[in-house]
Specification:
disordered N terminus; 25% strand; globular; six-stranded mixed sheet; alpha+beta
């Protein structure tokens, strides 16, 4: 074998090795959601939908800030106003959950609402859009259960879901029922967290 032939085989060998390494790296990035979704899929389980960049805000409080007493058991006890944007075009309905992960007995559901029309861009204080359905809270009552933490500061996580269908749920459905029928149909998601601590007198 001549020096030229040996040198050519070494070049071909390293070229093949480099190509294999590139293919393996690309495959790994794709499987972890780093390619194909703008990086938004980091930490996303296999088969889960790509969640868009929906926004959920309230004119009553900023994210991770205190909820005014008017929207709690120390005030009028009505839901705070909400507004959202950047709903995916393929959304057929919106659903909302409000849950307290700091409740002593475990995560407490304060509100579930579904079949909100995607064309609606806001929810006025105490308002329920036409056609929308309110489900059961952890108190087994329908509608909004105002924050009323027994002690300490609690978080109240408002989560808005964009769905690719309307839900056939009845008003006696719980948050467990809601999350179950939504599975595999979420095309967008946004959260807003409020905090509340009662003032002792």
């Amino acid at each position: 074998m001549t020096v030229r032939q040996l040198f050519g085989k070494r070049i071909l060998y390293f070229f093949v090795i480099d190509a294999v390494l590139v293919i393996v790296a690309v495959s790994a990035l794709w499987s972890h959601g780093r390619i194909g979704d703008g990086g938004s899929g980091a930490g996303r389980d296999a088969g889960m939908p790509i969640i868009g960049h929906m926004k959920l805000i309230s004119s009553a409080f900023e994210d991770n800030q205190s909820i005014p007493p008017a929207f709690t058991c120390d005030g009028r006890g009505v839901p705070p106003p909400l507004a959202w944007s950047d709903i995916p075009r393929d959304a057929k309905s919106l659903a909302l959950t409000v849950r307290d992960p700091d409740a002593p007995s475990g995560t407490w559901t304060h509100w579930t609402l579904w079949n909100v029309a995607p064309k609606d861009a806001a929810l006025a204080s105490g308002d329920v859009p036409e056609g929308a359905v309110q489900g059961m809270t952890s108190t087994r009552e329908q509608g909004w259960h105002a924050p009323c933490p027994p002690f300490g500061s609690h978080r109240y996580v408002f989560t808005l879901y964009a769905l690719d269908l309307t839900l056939p749920l009845k008003p006696d459905a719980t948050v467990t029922d809601l999350l179950r029928v939504m599975e595999g149909h979420v095309v967008g998601e946004a959260t807003l967290t409020g905090r509340y601590q009662r003032v002792t007198r």
